TrEMBL record, chains A, B, C, D:
This is Gfo/Idh/MocA family oxidoreductase. GO terms for molecular function: nucleotide binding; oxidoreductase activity. InterPro entries: Gfo/Idh/MocA-like_OxRdtase_N, Gfo/Idh/MocA_oxidrdct_glycsds, GFO_IDH_MocA-like_dom, NAD(P)-bd_dom_sf. The keyword Plastid does not apply. Residues 149-292 form the GFO/IDH/MocA-like oxidoreductase domain. Residues 11-130 form the Gfo/Idh/MocA-like oxidoreductase N-terminal domain. Keywords: Oxidoreductase. It comes from Nocardioides donggukensis. The lineage of its organism: Bacteria, Bacillati, Actinomycetota, Actinomycetes, Propionibacteriales. Pfam families: GFO_IDH_MocA, GFO_IDH_MocA_C3.
Length: 393, 393, 393, 393
């Protein structure tokens, strides 16, 4: 075991250093300490528009250097991989440029703010792949061990043909009408609201677990609170509370019905107004031979119902996904010692680095990200037209 | 306390004696033993088409007499109230005739198989009311104490303005493709499948708890298994297994989005294919000030989140709805001694008898049942047209 | 099927008509309506010291007649079985006399207030058995379907050799120091407090489920509140609140360690001071091949862990004990339609009547009740001596 | 914010690099990245008996250097604090020497293998404190946010006077009789079995949360499997399975009753034979005004029952301990994004470093560790004598 210490280096440059930047930094730092990686991640440089903040982020998050222009980051020799943690409106430009510069790319979700951008990114990824440059989109929840186990059980046929998918992503952080505006509530930066921010996750997760794709949707978007107080940085004031208000230009909640390519029926709901639910990613899948259920608020557990069990002893079993046999678990602690949110990002780094070393495509690909983007667009379009919309292949 | 023993009699005639008939009989027998009723139910007569079976049912279920023709039952002087427990295709004819004969009516849900029938029934109920004859539709789940408590908390403003309604009725009894045909899978008898049989319940429950009405829907019906083995009575054979198959003419699952009159967004799912879920009536309602959650598979519990609680100690609380202060509970056992499925029917009798004695309209009314029928029809129509449908007022 | 209507009669006389009397009455009334009994229970007569109250109870609970002296009840020809629902201090006298009068006996738990009384009762039961007269003690929780299933799984070897038993009976109805005195808090009537009232249940349940007996104990009894306001009937006043206080002469809580005959280790706790727990009978049993867990506050569920399952998919499964294959369930409702507290009493009647018709001994026997009494006595004695006590065989 | 980058250094030397060493290393590395520490931890040197393994551990776990003799580590100038992660038999010697050498000490639990050792350590800590050198014992579970919140609520009087403590630490890793011997099953290295290894945690946790101390115990130790296969390293063979067996010299399970100084009654159970329970630290505390419940297998949740709430809406609330107002949570992720096992160690570092910078005593102190040791000894002694044992003050 080299524990990454003698393995070839993989130098990383990260763009953006907010919530996602912190999670990614922790992952790059932690992965080689618990997993025996074939490449040794080097945290070279972090990029942010404000120089002082970027330097501070470098110190705080553990990057050797900082930059203020992502274009300069792409020019650096000590960057083999660009990790994009900015809002969605900048993804396409940075990712395409990075791939063209021969840098591997890990891009946070959603892949882009529009289908058109996602198509350009996916095309760029295809082109880059031909010369050994890889691209991955950061749907990190795929690497929660319970989710990975769910995929494994479906793949092994344990629940049979999938009939029902029900998925909810429930938060409540803006249920209060006086919660201030943020970039996540502005369409030009965020692309959409609950739909793209959290709905994208449950689209990706259900397609990942089932191995199927959504083929048509009937959706409904809703904005419960149209106007909110400007945060201070918006109003240009400082030290004084703003009384100005700004328009919320994205959805607060998105609900949609879906059909899957192989016949399953789906029901989806993404909202920031589910009072009392904090990060409730709930997925239940019913198949002909069994069922699976997951709730991120109890993230170390996967529930599994095996319909082949005699009725006398059949029941949803609460699998504590911390056994050495479970995905990723052997690298961590003994059974029953649960993992947390950030571990999914660490596992994402592990899988990405492993794919790069083996010359394989990491998943989810930009094509996967594009497909999610198409579903998001179809939901929006369906909400406008009040009819079902097909997802183009 | 007269415990119904010296109270005036209320003579009951019941039509149908299968699953629902057993539940209703138990309720008529049990209500006066635990509740101090203003009228004393007398179980006069039960009606079934087959004379021997009807007589056996009378003995088994505790009715004094039996009939084979419901028209004769309407002519009897020892019948003040007609309790209709037959399949939906006969509801309209029996109920209208009974009301016209001056008998109070308790009619099992769904009120009817079509909107037209339900309209006739509702009109008959209106006419009867004018002469002091009452009609009630048997959405018994309203009287599960946890559900009644949910209504009480919404009414008291404890969850504020309702934003999200999510409701599922999950069963799995025909998930196996070899489960035989039954009248519940035939459109001419049952009207619809999962939609009308169990979807009707969650429509009524969510409207009851929120005090709001569904105003538009986008629905999708699905039949996963088109053909099933005939049960022996269908095939005309006896003592021999049938190899014949018959067509399933109703939906196996129904999903729909909904908007409510005052702006809430709803997501509904009713299915008989949710492997591992047996009678999973799950309702969650998110409001501006709090949330409520219920699951019939843990029916003595209501979960309540109070958003006015400080964040440090806020959380969904598991209210065991068995305290003397809780609906119906004082009549039964000490705290923590849970009730079962059939208690809801007993409570239905209690409320119905009380309304009759007080000369008030019991709820849910036939008008409520008609409105549910309109939602069911709109879901079907929406599934056909693949567009949203409005519910006429 | 005769549904008990043409079966030979079994005439019942019940002594006592409070909480337990109501539960037993419901059971005698309900059992023949759902189960096909070999004997037809006839609710002949109820006995209570106060004539007016007894007559009222007869009307309310459905008994044909009432008596004020249990000795007269024993003389009646229309009493084949005496059902004893009085406080524990009168059990021995009534039960022994009833058995000697040739009446079958169903006696509420705990069997008696002292080992000596229980020994006399057990001896009387042995003598009566010789002439075909049967005795049963009413540990009704054995007949909660999930509990019966637990016994069945242990008997089938599904959890292997039992190593750990942990059992709690948690209530909180006197956690408030101002809750008034009741006969349950007075040693001369109740024998003991939490220990005998509810601790007796978990002793019986764990011995029943495991098929093993407790062989030694180390116990500790505690009275948290020594003095309480007299209830009005105690103080002799009426219509005025009492300011007098009386002494609590029993334990508020009892905890004890135990060893079982075949080597398992047990931990027991019975309390009326577990704030927030209403009727929390929790039993967990860990064996070499699996584990079982039960909580009465979710009484339709049995949790089962099968250690022979591969680690990847092993987990406690939540068995909803409502399938036709489950104990007692086929007589009631479809899967997922849960039962309540009083169903256990109905099942007790079913099993008792069946045993009587078949000339077999019903369980639990008076000998079983005596053994529980010995454990209770050993716990008390151990609490006094602060050493372990053996249970005599 | 300096994020530890410009703060004065705190150089750490760690002894031992197995399971606990990995957890501590992660904590030292991670704490300054998420918390704004007043001292900057420097991971100077790790010590292990085998030079190659120690060097490998240094590389893998991120220590700058390695040593093979802990005495040399104490001599180094680049060690301000010694972090002891070895088995219990070496704690006393290393800790006392470190304190005498003027090094702060963080010592893993249990503090020692005997009361005598713990007394020496506590005396050494007292002496060191006088010259500003601090000692802390590593009961890390105190720093699980839900546990810290429990302490906070008790301290604020939210559950009132404590009446019941029930605590279980349930594991099953040696339930299989063929699981091999390890040092944890040998008395000379481990001191005791389940009692000291995991029982120590629930003793510390319940005393911490309640703010009370255990004053007397009645205990029972049990070894279910006396003999086990030697692991290969024991047998001296390599590459071949051993058929030799060795004696298990510690308890497999420990159960005990306890009284607390202020009158609460406790029931404790620690076992490695609770089939299906992996790391089930379950603590429930019932007080006069409320109750708390915690289960480490759902570690981000604290359950709280407030008895001052009206009965209608009272219930155990499931507090997801991830709000900014909750202990430690603001440094991590948004609400609902749960933490894992290792976070408790990171919080331990945060609190320790903060105490050191402020010149305050960190908790739990060596005196706290000594008191736990005395309870452990009393349980063992009680198990031998079969009588209650007092805990000396």
């Amino acid at each position: 075991m080299n524990h990454g210490t003698t393995a070839p280096a993989l130098s990383v440059g990260m763009v953006g250093h907010a919530f996602m930047g912190a999670a990614h930094s922790h992952a790059w730092r932690t992965a080689p300490r618990f997993f025996d990686l074939p490449l040794r991640p080097v945290m070279s440089v972090v990029c942010g528009r404000d120089g002082a903040r970027a330097a501070d982020a470098a110190a705080r998050l553990g990057w050797a250097d900082s930059e203020t222009d992502w274009r300069r980051l792409l020019e650096r020799d000590d960057v083999d991989l660009v990790d994009i943690c900015t809002p969605g409106d900048s993804h396409a430009e940075i990712a395409v440029a990075a791939l063209e510069a021969g840098k591997h790319v890990l891009c946070e979700k959603p892949l882009a703010n529009t289908v058109e951008e996602a198509e350009r990114m996916s095309a760029a990824a295809d082109k880059a792949r031909a010369v050994g440059v890889r691209a991955m989109v950061g749907f990190a929840y795929r690497r929660v061990p319970a989710v990975t186990l769910a995929r494994r059980l479906v793949e092994a046929g344990r629940i049979g043909e999938v009939r029902h998918v029900r998925a909810q992503y429930l938060q409540d952080w803006i249920a209060d009408p006086e919660a201030p505006l943020s970039w996540r509530l502005e369409k030009d930066k965020a692309g959409s609201g609950a739909l793209g921010d959290i709905g994208a996750h449950i689209i990706d997760l259900t397609q990942f677990i089932t191995g199927e794709r959504i083929s048509s949707v009937s959706g409904h978007l809703r904005t419960f609170v149209d106007e909110r107080p400007l945060a201070l940085e918006h109003s240009g004031l400082s030290g004084t509370a703003s009384t100005e208000r700004g328009a919320v230009t994205v959805d607060d909640a998105a609900v949609f019905l879906a059909t899957f390519t192989t016949g399953a029926v789906g029901v989806f709901e993404a909202t920031r107004f589910a009072t009392g639910r904090k990060n409730g990613i709930r997925i239940e899948i019913n198949g002909a031979r069994g069922s699976l259920a997951f709730d991120f608020e109890d993230m170390n557990v996967l529930e599994f119902y095996d319909a082949e069990e005699p009725a006398e002893t059949a029941g949803f079993r609460r699998i504590l996904v911390t056994e050495a046999d479970h995905p990723y678990a052997a690298a961590w602690w003994p059974p029953g010692h649960g993992l947390g949110y950030e571990h999914a990002f660490t596992h994402q780094v592990v899988d990405l680095v492993t794919s790069l070393a083996q010359g394989e495509d990491p998943h989810p690909s930009f094509a996967d990200g594009l497909q999610v983007q198409r579903v998001l667009a179809a939901v929006e379009s369906s909400s406008d037209s009040r009819t079902w919309q097909e997802i183009s292949a």
